[in-house]
Specification:
The chain is an alpha+beta fold. The chain is built from 16 helices and 13 strands. The relative contact order is 0.12. InterPro entries: EMP70 (IPR004240).
């Protein structure tokens, strides 16, 4: 098993090394000629301190004559994206300096709104030709390497120690840089980069304000351009703010197909390599233990057991062989176990299909919300496999009420997640955030659940229940065998808690980058590494459960059904503990509502991780027990 994992990892890494960007279906490049109009769209205001997105026009920025909403897909709405038109318009390859957008006079309400957004470190997000606006940041220790941050800050707060006051300054002058790749034959160009530098400038002008007013602080005719030494624009009641921008164009060697590579460049790929190597060491260690059990201990035990001539000799033996009359006895709450196994199969199918699509490049970063939409649709479609797995296991337990068990499968896990999501959405509504899911989208989610997912679960369950039941390799005795007292290290609590450590250890480094991309709004698109870690997680969960299940059976404890599920599923507990640690060490969330949102969403993530890893461990242990007991001759 370990050899196969290493071969797969090597082939995947080799393919990633030679992979190049390619055009995706429905994502076609757009050619612009000199002088063509380029329309900038605005997206949500986002903050890592509050995690509550707001519409761009929720604060008094300059508005176009008519605000037009762009059509968002399901994933974009769930992410809180609100894409609208803006008064910022460029002309391709035509530099434009000191363009006045609008002039506003603040009152108490608008000044307070700007101050609140500056306090919470909100960033303004814009889009040009489907590329997000980024702010280039150069690392001091690596001058040659440039990182990119989403959007520019609304403003900044400065504390004056001498006067013991703090003042707020707004970024009202933007210097846009549009990078393009030129086609020499057609004289057309494609946009490959969209960057900005934001400044706070207290603009000055002579005389009274009019539409023809020329600024003295920013005048291209007088060769006066904005720089960092200008007097900043303060945010206060009755203050005048003039919004301006420059736009410059830079020719780039980057081709359109590779324009996302700059944004998605990994700054610390060595850490990802360390994560892969660390996880592979865990897999090799566990694979060695499983190989030793399977090839030496089990082979020896089975051969010895099959050579016994009488039943009396068999009874003198000890260990897992004595449990053949009880090992397949249905567990307590077997219905619930069937439901969770079916749900886990559904979740595993969703994750595997999404990973494959992402690795192949079909979930492009240019398709905002595409990953979220794909996950929802795949979850719905995988309901047929979830229903099938539930029914097959339920019939193995001699169950007959297949409709009842199917309803539980269709509603238990989605119901718990939807209830938490509904409460969190209510809190977001209370904050008047654009992240709140509107009624129409909520109705669409319920429609997907009730009208597509539930029927598919029933179809899968019907097919599974019609098939013949899986016969147990050995028959169960009518009277349960007494379980001897167990050592403390073989107790269920200790065994379950120990079993979750290694699966979590295989993924926790990659988990840091995933949490950082979600909660600190950074780019994450390294699905190649993620797919490798997913395979390693799969193997780790299976192997640790098999090892601990074997030790449990050797101690003559046949209650392996639930313990096999909880052993690998307990890694979700460590994930949630890690999420708590991450909250207090990496995030700067201060609002109670934002904290509730974080822990609510991480609770959903941990619950999903429990279902996924628990099912993987259970299926591995189910296969293992059937394999070893089918090899033993029972008179």
């Amino acid at each position: 098993m370990a050899l196969w994992i290493i071969i797969i990892v090597f082939l995947l890494l080799l393919s990633f090394h030679h992979a190049h960007s390619f055009y995706l279906p429905g994502v076609a490049p757009q050619d612009f000629f000199k002088g063509d109009v380029l329309k900038v769209k605005v997206n949500k205001l986002s903050s890592t301190k509050t995690q509550l997105p707001y519409s761009y026009y929720s604060i008094p920025y300059c508005r176009p004559q008519e605000i037009v909403d762009s059509a968002e897909n399901l994933g974009e709405v769930l992410r809180g994206d609100r894409i609208e038109n803006s008064p910022y318009e460029f002309r391709m390859r035509v530099p434009w300096m000191c363009n006045i957008v609008c002039r506003i006079i603040l009152n108490e309400k608008t000044a307070r709104e700007f101050k609140e957004k500056i306090d919470d470190e909100y960033r303004v997000n814009m889009i040009l030709d489907n590329l997000p606006l980024v702010v280039p940041v150069t690392r001091l220790e690596q001058d040659s390497h440039v990182l990119y941050q989403h959007g520019y800050l609304v403003g900044r707060k400065v504390w004056y120690a001498g006067m013991k006051v703090e003042k707020y300054f707004i970024n009202n002058h933007l210097i846009f840089t549009v990078k393009f790749h030129k086609d020499e034959q057609l004289d057309s160009a494609r946009i490959v980069g969209f960057e900005v530098k934001a400044f706070s400038v207290k603009h000055q002008y002579d005389g009274e304000w009019s539409d023809d007013t020329r600024l003295t602080t920013c005048d291209p005719h007088a060769k006066k351009l904005v720089n960092g030494s200008d007097l900043p624009q303060e945010v206060e009641n009755k203050k005048e703010i003039i919004f301006t921008y420059d736009v410059e164009f830079q020719e780039s060697d980057v081709k359109w197909a590779s324009r996302w590579d700059t944004y998605l460049l990994m700054a610390d790929d060595q850490i990802h390599w360390f994560s892969i190597v660390n996880s592979l060491m865990i897999v090799l260690f566990l694979s060695g233990m499983v190989a030793m059990i399977m090839l030496r201990t089990l082979y020896r035990d089975i051969s010895k057991y099959n050579q016994l001539e009488t039943q009396e000799e068999a009874q003198e033996d000890t260990g897992w062989k004595l449990l053949h009359g009880d090992v397949f006895r249905p567990p307590a709450n077997s219905d619930l176990l069937c439901v969770y196994v079916g749900t886990g199969v559904q979740f595993f199918g969703m994750m595997l299909a999404a990973m494959i699509f992402a690795v192949l490049g079909f979930l492009s970063p240019s398709n905002r919300g595409g990953l979220m939409t794909a996950l929802l649709l795949l979850w719905v479609l995988m309901g047929i496999f979830g229903g099938y797995a539930t029914a097959r296991l339920y019939k193995t337990f001699k169950g007959s009420e297949w409709k009842t068990i199917t309803l539980k499968t269709a509603f238990l896990f989605p119901g718990v997640v939807f209830a938490i999501f509904f409460v969190l959405n209510g809190l977001i509504w209370g904050e008047k955030s654009s992240g709140a899911v509107p009624f129409g989208t909520m109705f669409a989610l319920v429609f997907l659940w009730f009208c597509i997912s539930v029927p598919l679960v029933f179809v899968g369950s019907y097919i599974g229940f019609k098939r013949p039941a899986m016969e147990d390799p050995v028959k169960s005795n009518k009277i349960p065998r007494p379980i001897p007292d167990q050592s403390w290290y073989m107790s269920s609590t200790f065994s379950i808690l120990i079993g979750g450590i290694l699966p979590f250890g295989a993924v926790f480094i990659e988990l840091f980058f995933i949490l950082t991309s979600i909660w600190l709004h950074q780019f994450y698109y390294i699905f190649g590494f993620l797919f490798i870690v997913f395979i390693i997680l799969l193997v780790t969960c299976a192997e640790i459960t098999i090892v601990l299940c074997y030790f449990q059976l050797c101690s003559e404890d046949y209650r392996w059904w639930w313990r096999s599920y909880l052993t690998s599923g307990s890694s979700a507990l460590y994930l949630f503990v890690y999420a708590i640690t991450y909250f207090f060490t990496k995030l700067n969330i201060t609002k109670p509502v934002s904290g509730i949102l974080y822990f609510g969403y991480m609770l959903i993530a941990s619950y999903s991780f429990f279902v996924l890893t628990g099912t993987i461990g259970f299926c591995a242990c189910f296969w293992f027990t059937r394999l070893i007991y089918s090899s033993v001759k029972i008179d």
